[in-house]
Design goal:
The chain is of the alpha/beta class. It has one domain: Leucine Aminopeptidase, subunit E, domain 1, CATH 3.40.220. It is built from five helices and seven strands; from the N terminus they run βββααββαβαβα. The chain has a seven-stranded mixed beta sheet, with helices on both faces. α3 crosses α4 and α4 crosses α5. The longest helix has 18 residues.
Amino acid sequence: MRELTIGGRRIELWQGDITKFQGDAIGNAANEGLLGGGGVDGAIHAAGGPAIMEECRRIGGCPTGEARITTGGRLPARYVIHAVGPVYLDGNHGEPELLASAYRSTLALGEEHGVETLGLPAISAGVYGYPVDEVARIALKTAADHSLAGEGSLKAVTFVLFSASTMAVFEEALEKLARQM
């Protein structure tokens, strides 16, 4: 399964490069300093150009579990929403709540800026060590809850997943979510 409609909004899965996403905004798996890094963060800053970093420096950082918005620079997306997910320790140090909060903050910022189409990565699943199956469950549930709330500009949330293995995990989690709805 690669798509589910909840509350009139689509939750989609797409395998590919988030910097190529043709939508209003993309999410970034950022660090607290908003100063660029590796993985998704590095790719977004490299493809988007210096305008994104300039805005990040002006913002001055972002606590774990929150998000901040900047221009999309040279990206196809108008905005980048930088969300800071938790470093995974063992799942017993508030990580699930912080990860869900990072996704909720991203969705809320998108709504505040009139975003209709939003591409999101698997936040914290890379160098932060969060197990992909848990990221998929939390991310999709948070997007579904947001969709059920109903009001706002968002019409589609697309999880843009770089690898086939991450895509497969998200597909399985989306199927489980569909059975629960």
